[in-house]
Every structure is written in C-alpha cells, then in structure tokens.
Amino acid sequence: MSSAEASATVGALGAGDAAASEPPVPPAVRRLRRGGMASLFASETATLFRRWRTWAMLASLGLIPILIAIAIRIAGPSGPGRGPAFLDQVAGNGLFVGMTALVVATPLFLPLTIAVVSGDAIAGEASHGTLRYLLIAPAGRLRLLAVKYAVAAVFCLAAALTVIVVGTLIGWALFPIGPVTLLSGGQIPVGEGLLRLLAIGAYVAVSMLGLSAIGLLASTLTVVPVGAMAATAILAVVAQIVGAIPQLEWVHPFLFSDRWFDFDDLLRSPPSWESFGDNALLQAAWIAVFGGLAAWRFATRDILS
Amino acid sequence: MSPRRTGPSRFRARTVVPAIGVPVAIALAILVPMQANASVDLPDKTPEELVAFAKAGDVDALSGTIEQRSELGLPDLGTLMGGGASGANDSEADAAASDTLGELVSLATGSFDANVYLDSDHARLQVLDRMAERNVYLSPGEAWFVDSETQTATRLGVADDADVEGLEAELDRLADEARAEAEAGLPDGEQLPTPQQLLDRALDRLDETTAVSVGTDGRVAGRDAYELVLEPRTDETLVGEIRVAIDGENGAALAASVTARGADAPAFETGFTDVSFAAPDPAVFAFEPSDAFAVEEEALPLPTVDELRQWIADAQARAESEADATADLPRPIVHGQGWATVVELDAATVAEMTAGHRAGGGDSADADGADSVAPATEPPFAEGEALDLLGALTTPVDGGRALQTSLMSVLFTDDGRVFAGSVPVDALVAYAESGR
Amino acid sequence: MSDLAIQTHGLTKRFRAQVAVDGIDLAVPRGSVFGFLGPNGSGKTTTIRMLLGLVGATAGTARVLGTDMPKGLDDVLPRVGALVEGPAFAPFLSGAANLARFDAADRHASPSTRGRRVAEALDRVGLSHAARKKAGAYSLGMKQRLGLANALLMPRDLLVLDEPTNGLDPQGTREVRSLIRSFAADGTTVFVSSHLLAEVEQLCTHVGVMSAGRLVAQGTLDEFRRSGASRVEVLTPDPDAARAVLARIGLVTDAAAAAPVEAAASAGDGDALVTAALSDDRAPGGRAADDPAADQPAAEAVVAALVRDGVRVRGFAIRRTSLEQRFVELTGEGFDVVG
Question: Is C159 in the same domain as C289?
Fold first, then answer.
C-alpha cells in the first residue's frame, strides 16, 4: 500500500527531473523528442519496479526502521546522546522511528542501493545486450541516458520514502504518537511533524542525486554492472571518509556527501530551507559535471556489447 | 558517391555540447564565488571616524548566521569541563550548572555555525550542531539555555525572593552617586565628558599600545564593510593583529578575526555569513520547552541590596588596605602592561578558586570567572582525571607545566602558582622565576 | 541513388592497432535479399554495428535508405528492423514486456497501438503462447524468434539480420527462412549475415563476402555462380602444345593444376590434364564483372583452336566450381555447408 503511494508521487516528480536533467539539444530536435521521452520514461520506470531486485532493496531499506523500532520496544528507551541521532526520542514518539532510520541508512545502506540502481543504468543494459536494441529502436543516446538518470532519481525518492513510510507505520504501531520535539527544544503538532518528515525524505532523495550521476558515469565506463556499482558505492564511502578528515577541510564543501545530514535544519525552529537549497545546488553541480561526462562518454562510445 | 565524410564527424553535436558544457560548469562553480568578492569602495574614513561611526551604530535588531572558527590549539573546553564536573559526585544540579558553564565557554572559544536573532528586547543564539542544537534565549526577566543533545532546557531566572526593583534602584543610586562624585572632582565649570570625548580619550590610550588603521573595504555577508585593523605596538605578545569588519551603512560589527604573530591565517574568526537588519519574526524568540525535554531551573545569583552594599564596602576596604599590604591579599598580580600583560594567581588564590569550583556553586564559579583573565583555561584540576588531562594537555617547562595555544599561554608552576597571558611561555617562565 | 538500400564507401573501423573493417564498399540494392557472408571474425558484425550507428566509423561513409549515417540515425532507424549479434532481452520481463519496452524506446512508435503491434509480431514468429513467460526462461530458439519479432514491431523498409537462424532447430530454421522470404516478397530489403553457405544459397538474391575485414566479392548470386567459377579441362597427351594454344587464345593455364595431371598421367596412358581458368577475373567486382562472356572465348571456340593446332584432345570439360569452392578461394577458409 505504501509503495503504491510512493511510486505514484515519485512518478510526478521524476518526470520533472527528467526534463530538467535532459542535456541540451537543438530546439528543432527537442520538439521532436518531447513526445517519446515520457513514454520511454514510463516504460523504464515500470521496468525498474518490475525487477525483483528493486523490491528486495526497498524491502531491506524498510527493514531498518522495523529493526530499530523492535529493538527499542524490547530493550527499552536509550539515554540521550547515545546511539544514532533521535534514537532517544523513539520510545517517546513513534514518529522518530523513520527519522532515526534515515540517519542510520544515509551513510551506507541508502548509497548502496542507489549505487546498484545507478551503476546498473547503462552497464546493466550493456551486459544484458539490450543496450544495442534500445539504441537501434532508436532510443537516442542522450535521451536514453537522461531517462535512465531520471529513473535512478525516482528510485532515490522511492528509497527515502520507503524508510519514512515504513518507519512511521511501525512507529505508529509500537509507540505513542505525539507532538514532535524539534532540535530547538520546542514542539510541533503531529500533522506538521509528518510534513517535516516528508520534507526530510525529499531532502535525502535530493542528496542522493549527485551520487546517482556518479553511478551513471561509472555505468557508461564499463559493461560489467557490478564494477560500476562497486565503484559508486566505494566512492560514496570514500567521500564520507574524506569528509571526516579535518586536514582536508578545504575539499569538504565540494564533496557530494558534505550536506547529506544537513536535513536537521528542517527540524529546527524556525525551519531553515537554506540547507535544502544549498544541498540541491551542490547536487546540481555534481549532476552537471558527472552527467556531462557521462553524456560525453556515452555519446561517443562504441557499443560493442 | 557522397562527397561528405560524415563518419568521423558523426558525433560532433553530441560531443561538443557536453565537452563545452562540463568545463563551463566547472568554471562557473569556481568563478561565481570569486565574483562575490568584487571590489568595494566606501567613503574613506580615518580610524577615529571609523571607531566613532561604529560606536554610534544603533543596531538593535538583526537576524543572521554567524560562523565562528577557532584554531587556538585548545581542546574542546566545554567537554573537558563538563566531563570533569560530572566525574565527581556532585549533585545533579551542580553538574548541570557546571555543564551550562562549560557549554557557554565552548560557545565562546569553539568553532560553530549559529543563527543570531536580535530585537530590542530579545536575543537568541542558535548554535547549529549536526543533528543537534544549542540555544540561548534571552528575554526580559528570563533566559533559557537549551541543549538538544542532553534534552535539557535550563531556565536561568531571577530567584523568586530576589528584590529586582530594589536592586535596580540601588544601582541607579550608585550610578548617580558616582557621577556626582566625578563631577565634583572635575575642575570648575566642566561637565562630564561627552561620549565623543570619552571615545577620543579611549582612542588616545589605545594608541599608546596599539596601531589602529583602516584596512581595505570588503564585503562581509553580502554587505559593504569597513575594516578596522588593530596591531599591537609590542612584539612581546602572541597577538599579531585583530581585524574587525564594520558595516558601511550602520556601523555594526560584522566580523572579527585574531591572527597570531607570524601566522598567515587567523587563529580565531567569527563573523556573519548572512545578516539582515530587519527585526526578526517575534516567533523565533518564543520558547516553550517540549514535553520531552527535562526542564531545569537555575536561579541567577542576584545579590540582595544589602549584599551589594556589603560588597562595595569590602571592595573599598580592600582598595584601602592595598596600599598597606599588597602581597597578603588573594588577588591576581599583574605583570607587564598593554598587550603583554601577564596575570599571576598565587597558590592561595588558585587553591581558593579550585575549592570554589569543586563545590560547584554557580555563584563562586561565576565570581571567580569574572576576576580571572582566562576562566576558560582554568582547569578543574582538583579532580584526579582532570589532572591526567592537564598532564596530557600541557608540556613540561622549567619550574612547571605550560599550556601553549596560538594566542595565549598558561603556566602552572610546581609551587602552585598560575601565570597566564597573551605572551610566549618563555615570558611566563621568566616572570615565575623572578617572582620566586 | 535511392536504388541502393545500403551503400558504403571506404567504410573502415580500427580498434586500436587492429583493423576490423578495412575500407569496404557495400552496395545493397533495394528489394534484394543480400547475403553477407564471411567466417567468424571477418568483420560482418562490426560492419552491421556501423550501419546501425552503434559503432563509429574510423573512416569512410555509409548511407542507409538514402540517408547519411550516422547523421540521419534518428530518421532512418525507425524504418530499420535489426537483429544484431543474437537476441538480447531483460530476463526478468516477459517476452511481450520486452518487446513493449523496445517499442517505447522508439519515439515514432505510437503507444496506443503498441499492444496490438506486439501481439502481431509475436504471432508472426509463433510465440503468442509464450508472450507472458519471462524471457529468461525462453529457449535459445524462442529468444531468436523473439528477436525477430522485435525487428517486426513496425513496418520496416530494411531488415538487418545478423545470423537469424542461429540456435534454431531445423524446423525453426525453415520457418525463419520462409519468414525472410515473405519479407522480401513484401518488398522489404533484407540484409542477412551468415556463416552458413546453404542458407545464403537458399535465401539470397545478392551476396557479399567478407574476409579479414575486406569485402572480397559482391554481386548477384548468379554472378557468383558464373564468375571465376568455370575452368577448362583438357585431357591430352600433348600438354605443352595445349598450354601454348590456350595461352594464345587468352586463357591462363593453371600451374597448380599440375598435381592432378601427374596423378592422371601415372594412372592413364600418357595423357595429361591441362586446366585453365575460363575467366581471368579472379576477384569479380560484382557489377563490373557482369558480362564475362565479352572477353572470353566460348567453349566450342577453345576446342576448335586446340584441334586446329593439332592438339589431340581426348577429353574436354568446362567445370563450374561449386559456391563452396568459390568461397574457400575467396576467403581461404572453409564454411559450414550444412544448415
């Protein structure tokens, strides 16, 4: 039920992304392409969600909030300042399950699934041999790349929403639900709290867009999807390690992972959307650079698979 | 048959767009922030004019984001002090008080990003930590310190039995008395100096120790700003220069930095990255602690009118007796002057202070803090584990152990004295030896 | 030049140091069934990939359906159905879903008719019963047919089929061949690559032969049967005189044929076998060699000349080499003759 909702919302947003991330083409060609883009995007999105693997990854992401909720339910509330952020709030308010799960999932599990989907985007087709048939259909190389990226973006949103929706449901089932305590010390009503939770989901989804672009580039560099996935996942970890080394502070603002956790600004009073914008800008820069490199590479590459 | 060789050029359009697009994107990413530092040219001001301008600034409302970066070479003092206090068997309230103090100290010396909100009655400092937040709310009659990490909201309020009005009246009376006294002391016909005259005198005095100049105009937080540069005239101090950015429009201080002598980058800088001088939404000052937070009450140690009078009498008595027997009194001894001032606390004072600190009473800690030059560096070394920490932080020198940061040195002598100042450790050691 | 469905000039592909396709000049007439023959690794698939814009040419030009490729890729490819280097599908999707997916990638294909066209294509290759089955569970032959169905999703002017009968059982092979004939009957140009000589012989009107990256021959199948395939065999006790006569009337006697002559001589009674190629065009350029009779003496004229000069002709034959021998000559490699 939750997933159906998720993919419906996702579709609308993803389509916007597709248009935005479409590389520049001459106007005459663009007009021609408009019609077919949505059709291919719908088809590729459906293909993604018809894969057993996609659901397995979403299920494993959904397992995170479930495990957290059950652990707290059995072991009792944890003290303040221990464990992942918000863990101490879970026992008092089930709405924090999803939030805690996002904090837990963001460094590794989420990037891992994103790496699988984005690394598979082109390399997976190449390894199946379907890439050549998509291209002679003809899908158009840049059009296919843009659609594949948009589908990866849809997955980013689906992944973040899965964690939040499953977390909220399990939190609702196991714990009391009440006004949400903000970091600033005040509290907001449940409805507003849910809205902020959704905004955080959107924030996390946007956070993963830069990594998706990296995965897309990796995906155009090889015909072995596992290689592209592994390279992307490793980069996600390396970026966070670099981000933790103070001596490399000058490089931190450029890391795609630099603002992954700044969604806490949405839990302040007053909520600050500035970090949402900054993060979107940072991700956009990564999309521009790595998407551009992927487009350049994919447009000129010989398809031998 | 076709004369056109389409083969090699086949990918041209597809290649060229990204090939040009990518470098352009990178160039933009680098150039756009640089453009923000485009040259600024404000009307010239002399240092005196600039100081007067800054002083005359009447900003009573703003909201902005402060970025403070400190590379003093100090450990996180907040944790250090908090840890020391909670390690002891203090009552919870005392631990909390000590934590609060530690937090405030770390706010003063640490690195953080914070939002600042200010209007005529309220102020709020919102320190933005990762997945956490510390807040200081100030409003008439009450103050909150809120820490999301520990889920506590500490209300600093005036004790119920405090006679605030009486105290205010007493202070007004004392001020009037002082003014009358000062005017009586003046030569005939002269009034108290105007603020401008006071400023001039202060500048004259400052000029003896410090070269004051106006630096290059620049942009701070998107606003055109003057830069006031203070350079100590002595090279005995560790401080190289202090720069203060002053808003070109309303004279508000927008940024400040302290650079150690010989260093390239400031050891301490704080400033707005974003600022607006419009009154913030009053909602940002409203604070109602969440049900999930532990609320603690802490009374501000306001003296009663009688106590205040007693203090003043004590101080006067001390000032009078100072002429007779200086050395006997437990109070800081000052060596040197200006930037190279070194404060010495003798063994008795140190013992008294640590005793007071160990007791954990908020009043004694605060009072001592006000006297001491560097409360931040005053370690709670009565505790065993704190002693270990002290050992780890300091390096052995002749006659004791020293803590050296880029802007300040502290010497703990073996015989229990403490020397502190913005001077090299060698200078402290020299004072310690000469005073023995 | 709209009478050619595919036309290349000096089309070359170099992978680092290795030349995969070396300056080939293909000419595939519209409406033909063009057999693109060559051993594995001779550059057939690379050529097809260049024609379809999957691989960029190092040099040379290609026109497909009268449009420069790959510039006109987006306009041309919707009219081209192709099977390249075996069929390929997402194994987790059903056969029908796979076809629908490829169809969605073609922006000229209408989504509203997609379901019908997919069903028709599946029906045409006899896969309707397996439409809902996951492609991963298909047999090799079913995949091959699904690949053909993909090429038939839209009305096509040109079908490029790379080894279309690979992996099919004899029955499937027959079905595919009759399918190809039916396309040709509809006027569709079919460019079919194969390493199976029999397949080409049965299906094709035209042939091109690749060897080590070069197009060593192309033309109609009949031209191939004729060109360079006939040789004169003269059984005579006067081999030297016979050679002299044959040389005089413009035939090149075959020194290599001496071996069978020795064998024949030892076996027989002093007779020797003198052979000569009837055509001196060893590598017919297809269309250039379509009139071999013009500069060649007729068979009876050869006999007459021999007899006139007193050569005792005890046996005379015009031998036509089989296609297989011809291809072996051209490529230096054997073919699988059986289909």
Answer: no
